[in-house]
Design brief:
- It holds the Pfam family Parb-CE.
- InterPro entries: Parb-CE (IPR057241).
- Residues 14-160 form the ParB-like catalytic effector domain.
- This is ParB-like catalytic effector domain-containing protein.
- By secondary structure, this protein is of the alpha+beta class.
- The chain has one domain.
- The chain is built from three helices and eleven strands.
- β5 (82-88) and β6 (91-98) form a beta hairpin.
- α2 crosses α3.
- It is globular.
């Protein structure tokens, strides 16, 4: 994970792009247009609640290696004040967006209000694994008819399994609308191409992929 070109961008660019994020459904609505979107300074991962119930160890290891290499370039992956576009030595034609994780205020069925991990669970888990806080994009006041597409894990980080690979059948999250959960999916790839990786399909057949 050796970078050969690093092009930083500031927090204004980062937050402006996040505000333009669209849903996959609901007529491609800009879900954060009227929300409060801010960059929070490095914060303990205990403040955030995951929705996805697994991480992949190889991905966490890759993030830690990338952080070590970016530190040589003066960029701390866990303390970003914006983001960067990075080209890597092993794949120089691919531009990799490096941004903070995105967390979103979410009202849960049991009445809790939590900061659910929307994007960047592996980055958060990597920081957690080495006992470090991490900066995040924090979003509040999302329209109530456009909640995050999955529920937060009731027991938080203790329910996140570390896997070497994803099994063929594994329900990744508890979805609000299992038959059409992607309608509420936040498409960050449109603003930061490549930031959301397509992982192996593993959800049970009754859940629409």
């Amino acid at each position: 994970m050796k970078p050969i070109l690093v092009e930083p961008f500031d927090r204004t660019h980062l937050l402006d792009r996040v505000r333009q994020t669209r849903l996959r459904g609901f007529d491609r609505r800009q879900v954060y247009r009227d929300a409060v979107v801010e960059l929070a300074p490095p914060t303990s991962t205990d403040a955030f609640t995951p929705a996805q119930n697994y991480v992949l160890r190889p991905t966490v290891d890759t993030i830690l290696a990338l952080r070590a290499n970016l530190l040589d370039e003066g960029i701390d992956l866990f303390a970003l004040d914006g983001g960067a576009h990075v080209r890597m030595q092993d794949n120089p034609d691919e531009v990799v967006p490096v941004i903070p994780p995105v967390v979103e205020e979410s009202r849960e069925p049991d009445g809790r209000t939590v900061l659910v991990v929307n994007d960047g669970l592996h980055r958060l888990f990597a920081a957690r694994s080495v006992g470090l806080p991490i900066s995040v994009v924090l979003i509040r006041d999302v329209p109530p008819d456009c909640p995050y597409y999955a529920y937060a894990l009731r027991d938080g980080w203790s329910q996140v399994a570390e896997l070497d690979e994803l099994p063929d059948t594994h329900q990744k999250k508890e979805y609000r609308v299992p038959g059409n959960y992607k309608a509420l999916f936040r498409d960050f790839n449109e603003q930061f191409p490549g930031v959301q990786k397509q992982r192996k399909r593993s959800n049970p057949a009754h859940i629409s992929e």
